[in-house]
Amino acid sequence: MHRVVRRDHLLFRAMAVDKDVKVEADAGSDVALDTLSVYSIRMLCADMVEKASSGHLGAPFGCAPLANALWSKIMKFSPQKRWMNRDRFVLSAGHASALQYSMLYLIGQDLGGPYEVSMEDLKQFRAAGSSTPGHPEFRMTSGIETTTGPLGQGFANGVGMAIAEAHLSARFNREGYPLFDHYTYILAGDGCLMEGISQEASSLAGHLKLHKLIVFYDDNNITIDGTCDLAFSEDVGAKYAAYKWNVIKVDDADSCDSAVFERAVNEAKSQTEKPTIICLKTTIGCGAGKGIEGTHKAHGGKFATIEELRKKWLSPHGLRQSGNSTDGKVASMLLGDLKGEAMVAPKFYIPPTVLKRFRDAGLRGDKMAGDWEAMVKKYCEAFRATEPELIADLQGRMEGKYLTDSWQVAVSDYLHTEMSAADAGLATMHNNIEVGEPDAKKRKVDSKFKHKAGRVYASEALKIFVEHNPSCIGGSADVASSVGAHFPAVQGHFLPACYSAKVPGAGYQGRYIHFGVREHACVGILNGISSYGFLIPYSALFTIFFQYALPAIRMASISKFPVLFIGTHDSIDVGEDGPTHQPVEVLPQLRAMPNLLVIRPANVEEMVGAFEVYAEEFSGPRSLWGKRYVDPKPLKRRPVFLMTSRGELGLPYKCNTGIKGLDGLKKGAYVIHDCFDENGEAYLSPNAAKVRPLPDIVLIGSGQEVALVMKTKEILLQCWRKLSTDMQASFKDFPAMVIPPPAAPLKVRVVSMPCWELFDEQDQEYQDSVLLSNYDDILRIYVEKAATKNTGHDKYAHLSILMPSYGLSGKAADVEKKLEFTPEYIASKVWARWADRGRRLPMAGDEADQGYSTWVSRMTRRVGSH
Length: 866
What we know:
This protein is α/β, with parallel strands linked by helices and about 850 residues long. The protein is built from 30 helices and 22 strands. The protein has 3 domains: about 5-15 and about 25-370, Rossmann fold (3-Layer(aba) Sandwich); about 405-430 and about 440-620 and about 635-645, Rossmann fold, CATH 3.40.50.970; about 670-730 and about 740-840, 3-Layer(aba) Sandwich (Rossmann fold). Helix 2 packs across helix 13 (about 325-340), helix 6 (about 155-170) crosses helix 21 and helix 18 (about 455-470) runs parallel beside helix 24. The protein is elongated and about 120 Å long.
């Protein structure tokens, strides 16, 4: 291994707030201070875990030398300014959180800056509601770049950060102005490298030549169950070399000498073609004593040897007992701090010399941040005249404005065009349908009119969003042509420049990422891009394939990363691909995730509304009704999952309420077709004032099922009219005095409910006005073919007509008929239930009402079932 000295590295080491401060020349003193720092870090972590009676010490002890080198010599950061050109550090092995919290305290200024971890915070490690939780959480702890814990997630996040840096440097950097020029560092363990998401992300990172990505592999050969060779015996270095990574091995990674790690990092930085993995041969629980260090017992929990270690490492007398010359120098340094040879440092003690070391590193970073801000100002002045759009884009993003003004105009024009076509092509369904009225096809203004597929509407809206917002970047896991997620003329291709000869538009300035068939890594990488800032990430996949990425979607929800997920092919209308591709259970899985907005539009209006809701995540915090979230910090942003169809998406008739889908979607649910006509009948109240009638039945749906229940309504009205006419005809020979008056017409309301979460955030008055939940005698039925039973529909309806099973392979229309999801089947079920309600009045002695239950299709067998 050789050392390559780089100018930026020397600059970082030499830079200080006071120009007269000089780099220490005594290498022995450097190593002694390194050693005291490592001992102090280990004991600080040990005190945190001991006080909490919970946590992990194996990795913090083993990686304390690396942490000392990173935060005192290698990384650039500012405790006071979270500036964009800082180095990113991701603790993929999130169980080692005590180590990261300790470093954030050491380099920070207690309170007031981005790294505001105080000593009191360390003492509250793992306590309920503290800012130092068991695993690092974005937004929970200042200085944490991303939420980690489930192994491998942080690895993928770090790849996303490296992609963000490469893209922004390609877009904004100009000669003499390296605005984006930093490294992403990941600390990963054996467990991280066993996870599939890490391998997906590693493969892509090597393909993309992300040379500013450096992974430290904590190779301690231990997992919870024992030594790694029980399940993990591959040659990691060879594997990563095959991934086209630069591989560096450090065999003396237990050394406290920071120069060991500096040399490795400098070698990684000496090339510009590959990401680097630095394999650190460490000892888990290093220094904890026999029976602990190097064994699986060191992984979690507090060590029984802590007080012995305190006397050994943080006492001048104990240090001299080792007979090691470096420990002797450490004893002399500590003696000046403790003022006594026999004294032992108390718990949560950091020697002043150690604290000064890290605080000085922070001051150097503060100056770097200030110099960067000054460079940005000069940059804007230099290029404002020649590249005004570029400068406006940069300044907008720095001010938190990620969206342009033009996209809203463009999407409004698009919606106007689509709605004009729909208005011209659709007729009105009246509530007073007469027997013998021409059938539905003849009543349409344009019998040939068809709505576009839901995935097409989503693609067209996405294209407008991407084209008018240069901050938008994303991709698809190899199904872009099917879901409509790639627009090469607008986005280009995020690929190394060496691909430009065969892929026009290839380069890091491209905004479409070819993820390949790597769904889990795709979403994990987008989370990292979101964490990085300045960018709006999205991904579009078949809905079913997002199941491969559910853990990463969950991490986005925990972290409140505003990522846009577009899931197409959302139900059984996928057709011939069969149940393996029909995501009947994905919708409830997603709805169960807190902080995630799940939107299933019913037409193009709602589709555009969904994009506007997502855009609001970047235009300021949403005003949530009530205080429903147990969260120490406000909910400012959140991910959005937009679920849409393979087949035609739109209403069979015009909406009769005058409520625009854009406004209705933002409420989560709204009346899309009511039980009275705008110019039709209205009942008279006793004081002769006109009042709107209440419905007998409320049919609720989302997505394609809104059209389904609207057609169901038409059948119900026709059936009721025919029944009423036949009943009247049966009395034609009776005396007039005994002929009953005509029955009041059946009144049916149709509700579109595209987003449960947004609807739940509305006040009770609005919710009752839509669903009429405050009326017990109004039957409410929810219809959804992209869900399974017992998944929360009872919040909104008495009964639900849902998927009873997985789907079938066949043409979409045949599958829907087989599974009883046609207007005729739905109408028969609703009619049967309505007739059953009215057939019998409660009598004395009847059993108590047992409550409503979920009602699914009665089909229990199908051809070929077994």
